[in-house]
Amino acid sequence: MKATGNREQGTEGLAALLRAAVPPVSEDTQPKRDLWPQMQARLHEDGGNAARLKAVPWFDWALAGGVALVAVAFPAVVPVLLYYL
Amino acid sequence: MNTHPYLRAFLAGVFVPTLVLPVLLCVFIVVRLVLREPFPIERGLIFPMAVVPALWGAWNMLHLSSNVRTHLSLGVHGAVLPFLLLPSGAALATSLGILQLGASGVNWFQACFVPYVLIVPVFLAVLAGYYLVWKYVVGFVNRTLGIA
After folding, report:
1. CA torsion, ordered B76, B77, B82, B84, to nearest 10 deg
2. pTM summary value
3. Among B61, B56, B31, residue whose Cα is nearest residue B43
4. How far is residue B2's CA from residue A64's CA, in Å, rounded to a whole number?
5. What is the pLDDT of residues B21-62, one digit of tens each?
6. Does the distance separating the beta carbons of B20 and A83 come in below 8 Å?
7. Which residues of B touch A70 (CB under 8 A)?
C-alpha cells in the first residue's frame, strides 16, 4: 500500500471504516426551541435565597443556634469536633 | 443521569469532609511546623483524613440503597453516623496514644482535657451538626448529582 502524506501505511482503510461507522453530523444542530426560558424558570422555581431561608423550619434554626452556642461556650472541644469531621 | 448512582452517592458523601481536610492541614502546619508544639497531631490525622471521608461516602451509599425500605430522612440518617464514629474514633485514638481515658475526663494530645460531663452536650451538638449538614449540604449535593 502506498503511503500518503504523514499518514502511516495501512491506516487509510481504518479511516474509511471510521467514516462509515460514525454518521455524519447534520447541518441543523440547533435545538428546535429556545431553552433559556426553561432554564430561567428552573433557576427561579424556588423563589431565590430569601424564600429558601424562610422554608427552613424553626427547629433547624434552634439546632444551628445550639451548635454555635456549644462551640462558643466550649472552644476547647472544637479540635475534637474537627477530629470527627 | 441514571448511571453509577452509588458512585455519585459516594462522591456526594465525601464532599463535606474533603472540604475540612485543608483546615486540618493548616492546623497541622501551624501547630507542628510553625509553633513547634510537641503534640503528636500527625498520629491523629489518619482518622479525619482517611476514615471519616470514606465513612461519609459509604454512609450516603447506604442511604441510597436503604431509603426505599426505611424512608428515613437524610438528616436523621446522617445524625446516626456519630454513634459509629465516636467509638471507632475514640478506639483508634486510644490505640495510637493520642487519647487517654482518665477518672474524670479524657485527655487529647496530652494537652486538651475534656471532662466527661462535657462530652454529653458536645455529643448532642455533634448530632445536631451532623443532622443539619446531612440535611442541607449533603442533600443539596445529592440533588445536584441527581440521586435525591
Report:
1. 140
2. 0.71
3. B31
4. 34
5. 888 788 888 877 888 877 777 777 778 888 889 999 999 999
6. no
7. 121-122, 124-125
- How would you class B86 by CB atoms within 10 Å of its CB: exposed for 0-12, middle for 13-18, buried for 19 or more? middle
Nearest to B39 by CA among B47, B30, B48: B30
Q: Which three cell numbers stand for residue B24?
A: 486540618
Do residues B109 and B41 lie in contact, with contact meaning Cβ atoms separated by under 8 Å? yes
What is the identity of the amino acid at B97? G
The 3-state secondary structure of chain A reads: CCCCCCCCCCCHHHHHHHHHHCCCCCCCCCCCCCCHHHHHHHHCCCCHHHHHHHCCCHHHHHHHHHHHHHHHHCHHHHHHHHHCC
B24: closest CA of chain A, how far (Å): 8
Grid cell for residue B33: 511546623
Name the residue among B89, B113, B124 with its Cβ closest to that of A84: B89
What does the block give as the cell for B127?
448530632
Residues 6+ apart with CB under 8 A from B85: A84, B52, B55
Question: Scanning the structure block, which residue is given the C-alpha cell 452517592?
Answer: B9
Here the cell at position A8 is 502511516
C-alpha span between B134 and B104 (Å, rounded): 33
Residue with cell 456526594: B12
| C-beta of residue B75 within 8 angstroms of C-beta of residue B131 | yes
Q: Which three cell numbers stand for residue A84?
A: 470527627
Residue B1 predicted with pLDDT over 60: no
Whether complex ipTM tops 0.90: no
